[in-house]
Amino acid sequence: MMPTTGAMNGAPTTKSGGGRAQASPYDITAKGNIAIHHKHAYNGNRIFLYHYTRRIGERLVKAIQVAQFGGPDVLQLREVPDPTPGPGDVLIDVKATTINRLDLFQRNGSRPVPLPFTPGLEAAGVVVTDANGFHAGERVLTTRAGAAKGGGGYASRIAAPATDLSRIPDGVSFEQAVASGLASSTAWNSLFNQGHLKAGERVLIWAGSSGVGTIAIQLAKHAGAWVATTASSEERAAELRKLGADLVMNHREQDIVKEIQNNGAGVNLVIELVSTTLQTSIEACATNGRIVLIGNLGGQKATVDTQQWRLKRVEVLGGGISIAPPQDEQQILSLVAQKVITPVIAHLMPVTQAAEAHHLLESGTPQGKIVLVH
Question: H or E element: which one contains 36?
Answer without folding.
Answer: strand 34-43
